[in-house]
Specification:
Length: about 240
Amino acid sequence: MPIGTTQNTLMKGDDPRVVKCDVDHINEHAFLAVNKNASLTDVAGEAPQQLPVGMGLHAGGDFWGKFEVELMAATSGVDPATRPAIVRELLQYMNMDTIHFTAGFNIMKLTIKKTVDGFGSYVFHIPNQHIKTGCFMSFVLYHNIVGNTDWWWCDNAVKGRWHQKTHHLFSGKAASTYHRGGKLSDLSRKHAAGAYTHVDIGISGKPTIGDVLYIALPQVIAGKWNPAHRCPQFYNVGAGLGT
């Protein structure tokens, strides 16, 4: 049976009157994002040192010495031909490069400009990155990796194009299945009500000056999102059902 399917047998045995009903429940749940500013549109600071509110930095204490950041808007209500190419590529991947679509968000472009001295225990964390894993949660983000660098929480087998990466998080699962790199709380290694993890994005592989990470809609989602579907921009309870 497909993922998330339950089977109800109305009659037992080999009787030809047996009727079986397969119901795909995973696509029928209501989903909400719970990390405020997953849209990356609420920003602080002045360009070129401007960041989404709720995002945290590390990079060995020298984030701005090692990275350049640019925010690009994916906006509804404009002629698609006027959008930057990288924005159109993502919207086309999401099947929504139309004049109008629901809500709107920013894409964050992160460019490596220095590699000496390493990047610390992680580079940055997404806005409001704390995930309670005592219940079933999902973390989904869109990313486009350009260059040799590998990035935690991303699918590093896919580079040079947009890709949706879905993580299913639950403290009953083995910790090693959550993500590459980073650390989980000790409680996340067993089924515990107080278990949690953080979406800290770090670097591995062979980072090179000029390598780029684009990310969009890093959403912490209540429930089990079906990775076969493109993830929309959800109502966000952290923003009062805004973005």
